[in-house]
Amino acid sequence: MTGTDAPQYMRRIRSFVLREGRMTPAQQRAFDTHWARYGIDYTGTAQDFDARFGRHAPRVLEIGFGNGEALAWASEHDLARDYLGVEVHGPGVGRLMNALAARDASNVRLYKHDAVEVLEQEIPPATLAEARIWFPDPWHKKRHNKRRIIQSGFVALLATRMIPDGLLHLATDWAPYAQHMLEIMEAAPDWRNAVGPGQYAEKPDWRIETHFERRGLKLGHGVWDLLYKKV
């Protein structure tokens, strides 16, 4: 699926609002010092990730990694796999690059770009062993629900980038979005529920509890995990 034949809503609507915020001097230095090592500039052409990482290994994509806390932990505790992160918020990207550089990580590369365009243009088919979308913007107001990233067209696109039996892991702390995710995924012909039809999953050990999640739990939010395998 290319940018020209992608569903119309994907070409028209972003699944985020870019609230850049002000980067700290340390975060700006991360771009100046570490982007050449950890960053991938979006060019709209398919990437050779074996060349990018200097090896052939299973690849995990995290979309919307925020401040990078979970991605940093996962990549450090799963050295056999390579990690791709996509995030549009500059301060979060800078913070993660500083954390990666501090331990000389070699199995992470990052995009500061729209995830749909990265999937359409830069990630070749059958590239990903796993994709993670944890706590995406729920777009609470009904008139904004169409902006939610989990839509039928998006998960169909994502399926083309997965290897057979590849894993999609979704998580949210917003109950209406959890139900929306479940309805979309259960109807998606390219995916099957890994724990049983119509079922949410227990929180897997590999998803650490982040600062964002702890804050939500203190506010009384529930958390819902969904695990799906590529058919």
Automatic annotation (TrEMBL):
<keyword id="KW-0819">tRNA processing</keyword>
<feature type="binding site">
    <location>
        <position position="173"/>
    </location>
    <ligand>
        <name>substrate</name>
    </ligand>
</feature>
<keyword id="KW-0808">Transferase</keyword>
<comment type="similarity">
    <text>Belongs to the class I-like SAM-binding methyltransferase superfamily. TrmB family.</text>
</comment>
<dbReference type="GO" id="GO:0008176">
    <property type="term" value="F:tRNA (guanine(46)-N7)-methyltransferase activity"/>
</dbReference>
<dbReference type="InterPro" id="IPR029063">
    <property type="entry name" value="SAM-dependent_MTases_sf"/>
</dbReference>
<keyword id="KW-0949">S-adenosyl-L-methionine</keyword>
<dbReference type="Pfam" id="PF02390">
    <property type="entry name" value="Methyltransf_4"/>
</dbReference>
<comment type="pathway">
    <text>tRNA modification; N(7)-methylguanine-tRNA biosynthesis.</text>
</comment>
<keyword id="KW-0489">Methyltransferase</keyword>
<feature type="binding site">
    <location>
        <position position="62"/>
    </location>
    <ligand>
        <name>S-adenosyl-L-methionine</name>
    </ligand>
</feature>
<comment type="function">
    <text>Catalyzes the formation of N(7)-methylguanine at position 46 (m7G46) in tRNA.</text>
</comment>
<feature type="binding site">
    <location>
        <position position="137"/>
    </location>
    <ligand>
        <name>S-adenosyl-L-methionine</name>
    </ligand>
</feature>
<feature type="binding site">
    <location>
        <position position="114"/>
    </location>
    <ligand>
        <name>S-adenosyl-L-methionine</name>
    </ligand>
</feature>
<feature type="region of interest" description="Interaction with RNA">
    <location>
        <begin position="143"/>
        <end position="148"/>
    </location>
</feature>
<protein>
    <recommendedName>
        <fullName>tRNA (guanine-N(7)-)-methyltransferase</fullName>
        <ecNumber>2.1.1.33</ecNumber>
    </recommendedName>
</protein>
<dbReference type="InterPro" id="IPR055361">
    <property type="entry name" value="tRNA_methyltr_TrmB_bact"/>
</dbReference>
<dbReference type="InterPro" id="IPR003358">
    <property type="entry name" value="tRNA_(Gua-N-7)_MeTrfase_Trmb"/>
</dbReference>
<feature type="binding site">
    <location>
        <position position="141"/>
    </location>
    <ligand>
        <name>substrate</name>
    </ligand>
</feature>
<feature type="binding site">
    <location>
        <begin position="210"/>
        <end position="213"/>
    </location>
    <ligand>
        <name>substrate</name>
    </ligand>
</feature>
<feature type="binding site">
    <location>
        <position position="87"/>
    </location>
    <ligand>
        <name>S-adenosyl-L-methionine</name>
    </ligand>
</feature>
